[in-house]
Amino acid sequence: MQQTRKPKTRCKYDADFKSEVVKMLVSGQTVAYISKALGISENLIYRWKNQNQGVKKATCEQNELALENQQLKDRVRQLETEREILKKALSIFSRQT
């Protein structure tokens, strides 16, 4: 009799599980320990760690861009106000001559 092999199915892990694994790494636990304790491969843990670092970096960059964008909007508003004041001053001085 011939046994048919069933292909291994991939486990899908949700984002909460992945973030908890990364938190375990940050808290000082080793990859080998986490791998054995949870029954997942070390490579998978390293991949999640790298993905998490990329997300943090992207989030940090987005925050910096949002801050810079707000500062630039404030500066534009200030310059527009100054321009309006100068226009009014020019019209006042041009009428007197």
Total individual domains: 1
Q: Can you count the helices?
A: 3
Mean pLDDT: 87
This entry's quaternary arrangement is: single chain
- Give the helices and strands as they follow along the chain: HHH
Helix content: over 70%
Low-confidence stretches: none
Task: Kindly estimate the percentage of residues that lie in beta strands according to DSSP.
Answer: under 5%
- Biggest β-sheet, characterized? none
Keywords:
97 residues, mainly alpha, 3 helices, single chain, 77% helix
Write up what this structure looks like.
- With 97 residues, the protein is mostly helical.
- The chain has one domain.
- It has 3 helices and no strands.
- The chain has helices at 15-26, 31-38, 42-96.
- The longest helix is centred in the last third of the chain and has 55 residues, at 42-96.
- The termini are far apart.
- The model has no long low-confidence stretch (mean pLDDT 87).
